């Protein structure tokens, strides 16, 4: 069933599996012209939002390109950075290979071109990323040229070995999905070469003995390292051959169903029993390579489809680019075309409904939709569930003591419907309503706590990014407050998903013993890994720890300091915290390090400064002098009484103390 479409004469590339939301990149094709005969080139990125029922896709980024594209590929190189969405590689004419930053295109920033090279001598028609090392890219062009690029150093490529003879074009390159140093290349003559990059030489060559095999596509088996498929675009031999390199004298099997040459193949990475193919007979077929059976077929189109690709993130979806200037997105799960047909009819009706035909002030009557347009058109799904939907099942047999009795199927269905209506919990209807209306907060507040995993999966898949953290915290709070001890412990996973470190520590301390040093270290390890992960994903520093987390960090830092690891203990104490425990320990550790602190600025003094003052001590003699009788005695004194108070601060390594000297008097 068709889900989305865009009108572009372009090559395509899906965003990597770890990117969300799903994007589709398109680049102006170098192999054809559109109706305007424009020679301009454009690189565009569209968001594929399946929540939107319309067929249109929203353009999220566009960039004028200097060259048209023969091949486009999107890899996850650099996705460890919080501001990265991977890189897009475009193979153009005249040997041009360009690397673009997907994040800069989406954000409309300047300088989206990361690198560009012209090492190839002809058009670059073949590209593939290594599935094990995202920085390795293979490219193929004319004259048997194959280069291996390290995206960390895009200027100097490597070669897998000497060029194969005779020199010919490279139509496809593909990395093995199980062994990271195995690369294969295919030629239009029907020959496929398998390279071992450790030896820098080809280890086997595969070719059909009929000499009618013109190779247009190639793909490795997702799970079996020694199997691959080759497709032939020759109308005399429109087949897909499955080869096993352990028995490379002849194909293992052939898939025969197309009536004209095959233009493209794509093997589903989530289910090896699904293989897509498109051919010149305007058909798109989905095969089970193990049995040779066609398990899905799209309705025949009016033009050839030159490229089909499975979506890496959603394995039930694939894209198809056709020569009539359209890129369509389909689902192999089947569906109903009635809604799309009615939507198209409504567009036509709304376009002509309010026109005045002859200026008489009267509008046209409503457009009458033909009856055949409103008829339900069903597209059957796959003949059996794909691998990612299938669940492991078991069966047990028993003999009932009751005698079986016949019942009509219609009567059974009727009784079953009445039973479900009477016994079904009404909460089920409200749950369905919340899912349809995307009221995720209602699901969090009303769901059965025993199904908290399903609720968390719904939030992870469908909720908006700005609401996800709050919703996960709400679910974790429900598990803590309303659940038993086991559910309260499961709330930790909700706080990990939301990135709320403080709530995670509170929940962990409540449900686990942390008094022993090993238990405390286990908790601190989890906290530090989660904090660093959140900093990398969000690109901002974590907020200052609360009282519970501050207490645990202080205990761990004190444990390190007691073992002599003063610098390590200092590193665990956050600078931004205003908690008194952390400030006191930072002050002690700073002064305890002595000269080892280097240029590190001193932490703020953790105590408030209070002026306590000094009271003058009056001696009995002074009291006597204040009387008239003692005045004469005071006049005989050469100097008045002097009172002084000294306070001396002594500092020794790890502790400080104050020593006050007694008040003394100087009498003369």
Automatic annotation (TrEMBL):
Whereabouts are the WD repeats? 117-159, 255-297
Q: Where in the cell is it found?
A: Cytoplasmic vesicle, COPII-coated vesicle membrane; Endoplasmic reticulum membrane
Q: Where are the transmembrane segments?
A: none
Q: Which UniProt keywords apply?
A: Cytoplasm, Cytoplasmic vesicle, Endoplasmic reticulum, ER-Golgi transport, Membrane, Protein transport, Repeat, Transport, WD repeat
**Per the UniProt entry, what are the Gene Ontology biological process annotations, in alphabetical order?**
COPII-coated vesicle cargo loading; endoplasmic reticulum organization; protein transport
User: What InterPro entries does the entry give?
Assistant: SEC31-like, WD40/YVTN_repeat-like_dom_sf, WD40_repeat_CS, WD40_repeat_dom_sf, WD40_rpt
So what family is this one in?
Belongs to the WD repeat SEC31 family.
Q: What is the protein's name according to its record?
A: SEC31 homolog B, COPII coat complex component
Organism field: Chrysolophus pictus
């Amino acid at each position: 069933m068709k889900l989305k479409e865009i009108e572009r004469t372009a090559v395509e590339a899906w965003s990597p599996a770890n990117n969300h939301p799903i994007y589709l990149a398109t680049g102006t094709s170098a192999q054809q012209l559109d109706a305007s005969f424009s020679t301009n080139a454009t690189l565009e990125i569209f968001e594929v939002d399946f929540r939107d029922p319309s067929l249109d896709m929203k353009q999220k980024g566009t960039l004028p390109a200097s060259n048209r594209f023969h091949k486009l590929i999107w890899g996850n190189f650099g996705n460890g950075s919080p501001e990265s969405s991977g890189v897009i590689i475009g193979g153009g004419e005249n040997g041009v290979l360009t690397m673009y930053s997907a994040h800069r295109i989406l954000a409309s920033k300047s300088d989206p071109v990361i690198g560009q090279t012209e090492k190839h001598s002809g058009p670059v028609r073949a590209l593939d990323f290594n599935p094990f090392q995202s920085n390795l890219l293979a490219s193929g062009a004319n004259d048997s040229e194959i280069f291996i690029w390290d995206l960390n150093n895009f200027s100097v490529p490597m070669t897998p070995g000497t060029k194969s003879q005779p020199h010919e074009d490279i139509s496809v390159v593909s990395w093995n999905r199980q062994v990271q140093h195995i690369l294969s290349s295919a030629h239009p003559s029907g020959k496929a070469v398998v390279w071992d990059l450790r030896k820098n030489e080809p280890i086997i060559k595969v070719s059909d003995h009929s000499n009618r095999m013109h190779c247009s596509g190639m793909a490795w088996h997702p799970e079996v390292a020694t199997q691959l498929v080759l497709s032939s675009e020759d109308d005399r031999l429109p087949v897909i051959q499955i080869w096993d390199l352990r028995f490379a004298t002849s194909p293992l099997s052939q898939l025969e169903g197309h009536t004209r040459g095959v233009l493209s193949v794509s093997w589903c990475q989530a289910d090896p029993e699904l293989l897509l193919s498109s051919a010149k007979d305007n058909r798109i077929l989905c095969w089970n390579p193990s049995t040779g059976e066609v398990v899905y077929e799209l309705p025949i189109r009016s033009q050839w489809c030159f490229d089909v690709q499975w979506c890496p993130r959603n394995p039930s979806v694939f894209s198809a680019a056709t020569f009539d200037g359209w890129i369509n997105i389909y689902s192999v799960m089947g569906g109903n075309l009635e809604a799309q047909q009615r939507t198209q009819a409504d567009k036509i009706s709304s376009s002509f409904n309010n026109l005045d035909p002859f200026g008489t002030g009267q509008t046209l009557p409503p457009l009458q939709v033909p009856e055949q347009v409103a008829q339900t058109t069903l597209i059957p799904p796959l003949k059996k569930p794909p691998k990612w939907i299938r669940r492991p099942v078991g069966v047990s047999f028993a003999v009932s003591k009751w005698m079986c009795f016949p019942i009509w199927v219609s009567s059974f269905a009727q009784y079953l419907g009445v039973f479900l209506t009477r016994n079904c919990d009404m909460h089920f209807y409200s749950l369905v309503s919340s899912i349809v209306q995307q009221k995720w907060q209602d699901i969090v507040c009303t769901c059965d706590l025993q199904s908290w995993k399903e609720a968390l999966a719904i939030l992870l898949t469908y909720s908006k990014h700005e609401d996800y953290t709050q919703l996960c915290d709400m679910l974790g709070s429900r598990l803590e407050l309303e659940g038993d001890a086991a559910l309260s412990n499961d709330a930790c996973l909700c706080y990990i998903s939301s990135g709320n470190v403080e709530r995670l520590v509170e929940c962990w301390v409540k449900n686990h013993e942390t008094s022993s040093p090993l238990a405390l270290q286990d908790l601190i390890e989890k906290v530090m890994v989660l904090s660093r992960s959140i900093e990398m994903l969000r690109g901002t520093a974590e907020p200052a720890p609360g009282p519970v987390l501050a207490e645990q960090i202080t205990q761990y830092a004190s444990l390190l300091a007691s073992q002599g690891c003063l610098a390590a203990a200092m590193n665990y104490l956050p600078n931004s915290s205003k908690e008194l425990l952390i400030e006191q320990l930072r002050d002690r550790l700073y002064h305890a390090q002595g000269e080892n602190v280097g240029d590190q600025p001193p932490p703020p003094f953790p105590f408030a400064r209070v002026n306590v003052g000094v009271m003058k001590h009056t001696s009995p003699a002074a009291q006597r002098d204040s009387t008239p009788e003692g005045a004469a005695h005071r006049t005989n004194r050469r100097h008045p009484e002097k009172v002084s108070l000294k306070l001396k601060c002594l500092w020794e390594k790890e502790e400080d103390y104050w020593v006050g000297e007694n008040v003394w008097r100087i009498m003369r």
